[in-house]
């Protein structure tokens, strides 16, 4: 220890930390700094069979910004299925009566056409806001274009009417009161001016509403991960270099070591969920399901960390500390918002991504504790438990020597 303290190589440690840790941390925050939403999948349903609906769909597909990527669906039912499967984050629906209602704007009983914007809010709170703003902007542009087209048509009709009356009015002479009629001719009634200015109205429909729970995955993240981290470390330390009276005592201790994470996880799941309602004001529709899902996460992560420590020793805990930094972006952001490198080579294998997607499933979609994500976590738990017991069986116990 004295020799190490006197070593001049210690001066290099801060430089190594700056180089290595800097690279790791900068990579971890890369998605937040270089956020570049692109090709976010959006649905499009054109139920209107009129010319106006077809023209609208064509313009949308041609002029869609890079931030979104439209996928056409045959019906609203097919679109809703895609939203249930989280294949799209939102959609634009042109109803069957769109063209007919646009045509009524020049009649005595005008009706505004409606474009429906669907927002798959539960899929990702950040993307939901982005998609809503993008689609609203696109409808506003279409509104302006349609208004311009209608006003051009009105102007042409006005010019036609003026041309038909030109000879009659000219014959009256400039001093005649009828001479001013030409300037007053317009087929638009004053009461319809606003309808012509904004022919399309927007109806926003939120699917799988998140309400005040949109940030729930990030709210539970710290508690879920750090309780698992501390639990795995404690399980390792309590058994590391432990001396047993006999092999039977070792088996009993290892069995207790394998049971405690389940108890620990169950308590952590319910405590975390209760804290979220008490301190954060979360209104959970299914309190027990959320608590049990958090418990599954804590149990799986605790065993995963414990198994790693059993085979690779205590320094391997650094892996899971770093995973926390890399997971912050994965939990908050959709893959379509991340740089390609981060999305393709980092996010896909992060365990906390599974936790976050599974929690969204419980909160906003199927509401079932057992879903594809919790099944993946259970497989992690089972594999980790097997690895722990393989290590228990191959490791020679330290037995107490008889005095």
UniProtKB/TrEMBL annotation:
InterPro entries reported for this sequence: ABC2_TM, T7SS_ABC-Transporter
Domain ABC-2 type transporter transmembrane: 15-389
Subcellular location, record wording: Membrane
Keywords: Membrane, Transmembrane, Transmembrane helix
Ranges annotated as spanning the membrane: 12-33, 218-238, 259-278, 290-312, 317-335, 372-390
GO cellular component, one term: membrane
GO molecular function, a single term: ABC-type transporter activity
Protein name in the entry: ABC-2 type transporter transmembrane domain-containing protein
Topology with respect to the bilayer: Multi-pass membrane protein
KW Transmembrane (keyword) present: yes
């Amino acid at each position: 220890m004295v020799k190490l303290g006197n070593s001049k190589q210690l001066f290099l440690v801060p430089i190594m930390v700056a180089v290595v840790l800097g690279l790791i941390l900068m990579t971890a925050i890369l998605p937040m700094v270089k956020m570049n939403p692109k090709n976010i999948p959006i649905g499009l349903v054109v139920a209107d069979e009129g010319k106006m609906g077809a023209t609208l769909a064509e313009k949308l597909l041609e002029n869609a910004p890079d931030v979104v990527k439209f996928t056409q669906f045959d019906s609203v039912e097919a679109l809703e299925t895609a939203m249930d499967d989280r294949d799209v984050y939102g959609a634009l629906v042109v109803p069957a009566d769109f063209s007919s209602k646009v045509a009524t704007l020049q009649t005595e009983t005008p009706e505004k056409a409606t474009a429906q914007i669907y927002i798959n809010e539960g899929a990702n709170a950040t993307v939901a806001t982005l998609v809503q703003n993008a689609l609203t902007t696109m409808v506003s542009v279409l509104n302006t274009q349609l208004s311009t087209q209608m006003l051009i048509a009105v102007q042409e009709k006005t010019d036609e009417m003026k041309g038909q009356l030109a000879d009659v009015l000219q014959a009256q002479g400039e001093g005649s009161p009828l001479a001013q009629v030409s300037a007053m001719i317009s087929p638009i009634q004053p009461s319809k001016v606003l309808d012509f200015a904004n022919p399309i109205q927007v109806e926003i429909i939120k699917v799988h509403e998140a309400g005040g729970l949109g940030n729930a995955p990030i709210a539970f993240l710290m508690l879920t991960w750090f309780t698992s981290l501390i639990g795995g470390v404690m399980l390792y330390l309590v058994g590391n270099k432990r001396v047993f009276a006999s092999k039977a005592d070792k088996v009993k201790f290892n069995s207790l070591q394998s049971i405690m994470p389940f108890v620990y996880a169950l308590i952590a799941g319910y405590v975390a969920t209760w804290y979220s309602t008490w301190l954060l004001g979360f209104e959970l529709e299914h309190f027990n399901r959320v608590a049990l899902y958090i418990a599954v996460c804590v149990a799986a992560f605790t065993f995963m960390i414990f198994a790693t420590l059993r085979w690779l020793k205590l320094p391997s805990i650094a892996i899971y500390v770093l995973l926390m930094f890399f997971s912050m972006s994965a939990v908050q952001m959709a893959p379509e918002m991340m740089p390609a490198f981060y999305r393709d080579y980092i996010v896909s294998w992060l365990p906390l991504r599974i936790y976050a997607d599974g929690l969204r499933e419980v909160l906003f979609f199927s509401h079932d504790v057992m879903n594809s994500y919790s099944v993946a976590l259970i497989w992690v738990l089972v594999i980790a438990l097997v690895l722990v017991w393989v290590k228990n069986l191959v490791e020679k116990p330290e037995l107490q020597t008889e005095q």
